[in-house]
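From the pipeline queue, job 12 of 40. The input is one protein chain; the requested action is below.

Action: predict structure.
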Amino acid sequence: MRLVLDVQSRQTEGSGHRGVGRYSEGLAIHIARQRGDDEVRICLNAAYPDTIRTVSASLQRAIGREHISFCLDPMFANQTSLDAEDDTLVREALIRRHWMALQPDVLHVSHVFENFGPPTVVPGAWPRIPGVVCSSTLYDLIPLRFPEHYLADPAFKAWYLAKLEILRDCDHLLAISETSRLDAIELLGLPGDRITTIWGGVDEERFRPRVLAEDEIQSFRAKHGLRKRFVIHSGGDDYRKNLEGAVAGFAEVPISVRQDVQLAIVCRLGDERRAALTKLAARKGLAAADVVMTGFVSDDDLARFYNTCEAFVFPSLYEGFGLPVLEAMKSGAAVLGGRNSSIRELIGDDDAMFDARQPASMAQKLVRILDDEGFRRRRREAGLERARLFTWERTASLALEALRAARAAALPRATATRVDPLPRRRMALFTPLPPCRSGIADYNAAFLPYLARHFAIDIFVDGYATSDSHLREHFAIFSHQDFERRSAQYDVVVYEMGNSEFHAYMLSYLARHPGVVVLHDAYLSNLYGYIDFQRGERGRYVAEMLGAHGPRARRYLAPVQKHPDPIGCSMVDLPATRSVIDQAIGLISHSPFSLEVARDSYPEGFAAPYRIIKQMVNIPEPIDAATRCATRVALGLGENDFVVATFGHVAWTKCGDRLLEAFLRSDLAGDDNARLLFVGELAKDAFGNALRERIEKSGLGERIRITGYVDESTYARYLIATDVAVQLRTHTRGETSKAVLDCLAAAVPVIVNDAASFRDYPDHVVTKIAADPDSAELAQRLSSLPARRQILAEAGAAGRSYAIAEHAGEKIAAEYALAIDEMLQRHVAASLAGGIRDLGGLLAARSPSDAVVAASARALFAMQPAMLFRTQRLLIEVS
């Protein structure tokens, strides 16, 4: 999952220095720290240059700077030639374009209620793309609870109600308290399963119990005009914060109790509000020095207030969360709060709560906490214990769990036979076909009839006629040289890309005509090796390696390294897929292993959405005993033979030598009815020669057979004849084994090593041995097989059922159709061409200044995926 977090609320004038801004930053930091296999991208706003350095520096401690991007061009903040409405439309278009250029699976906007009036930072309409989850943090709905105080201004009311519609349209909301969640259900009519309560945390390095040095305490008190004993109220100047109630409640504390105690109101106050509160205090009988109004204080000073106060009192009438309450509890303060809303969730003890609308109720609790040292101590201890429930780690974990579930629920679903109606698009497909000796060619020959139910497909090949009669009859097949003159006819281009010479012709087309890439192999290093060393494009291999892997490739290839085998070792270790991934508008692979390789190789990330869709397999008809017996006889096998087989090219990467040694060391070697079959072409290299020689020397040549290359019908007969298949792999290129799927579909039980794409299969479907097995382990496993025929039969049946349920052609083709539809819509929303078209049309209708056009163009260019997903580079001037 790629999660894009819009954290502009940490920068704005309205939220940046308030609880909303701090909460947004804290959530982003801890989600980034707990992201696991998910990818997190953080979006800030370059139009707030004063905050970029501090906010991005804080975020970079949790996530690399290459994962932080900036929407808008800072020049845009200075443009004045557009009126407010047009300025808003242009800003919204740029921000939406930036979001989609990051290719989110989940877009989470930290706060929708930003900037009443220009400049806009949260668009009124969000992108709606299949499979993309839109989410936001729900802080509170207090204006709806107190409309007479917050919605009296018609303009603000209209703005606020429009923002509420954004919340209603979100696929999921993260509520900061159960109170806010229940309010959304009641006041917005949202279903409860679309809202998850995640609560919140605080900066526990800053807000924690501390014993301050006496000189620090004296300096702090002098700075703010404090006596030795004081109680504090913080949280802001707002109707619901009930500053008047705090003053009135403090005034009702008997003078004998509060004689040496002050009330400190810690928040930013305007001159009029300060004067009004001073007058109220005087009317209530308080002396001028009894109430201290500090104005805005730094977080460090706020922590000192919590650490040194007698009590923290919070008579708020309603809260979405109550961040000051949690900060005070975490700091070890004795906390008292109003018995309402989320304050009850945080404090969790009625003994520490009061009726916030009744000053006498607050005064009663203050008297007790000021007069009773034991009660004060218990409130501090209870607050610290209760506060342990509310941590950023827990909040981030709940948020990620909710967003992952929302993402899973939003993924377009395919049944085995149909998808929701999609337009029947025209597809140009680049792929090898039979007679190419390529697993991808054979696979697509079988798969294309299913895919053609969803697309009108033309196939472009590398200048040969296919030997597959069905494809010739049902598809238009062209030489790739014909594509350029036909390209305008197609809605989508799909490249079936693999790690062999059969795919070399595709690369130049992909560079000119970006499309969906089905990446059958996680590595393409052999492909580029062929292009350079066999086809003669000198320097291509090194260029691709350096472009993809930079310093990692130089460690192999730079002459100064004097590597003993620079080409061979780099070919094995480095995938060289960067340019293909960057040119794709979307990627499909059959195994999560391929995605893991890409993420590990390119930690800076890549723009294209990457979907894992299982490989299709044709399901043969069930075979009866008579057919099986006849097939064995036709292949020269006995009816009662126990046949162990391995299918596919017999090369060192398939560990055929280990299988042979295991067979020779097992009990099967002494069983005249046991057979070992290598069904495939033997590699024409040192490995192949050594394997053949070892078989000849074993004395079991009559029972160990290498078939050589077999056609499709002979291959199917060997599947019918096999009792158990052993499919091993080392140094995988990320491909999904067609042989394993063929065995499962034919109800042949399979033993695999627990590595790469073999890990994808459930344990009840295949038998897994060590990822790097030795022949002794495998010999032990083989020896036990003949006595377990019933168990083998059950395993074969389980494998066939799995293949039918998960790998049927109809289902896989439907999943392809949904994925390609999503990728096309994402591409339109994110591409530079689309941005120029949309924003250009918007600007053309408004006669903007040249400066506005230039700033818009810069912003569009900066948010190209190639600019947003690139390795950070350090340029060193050496003159």
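Job complete. The chain has a mean pLDDT of 92.
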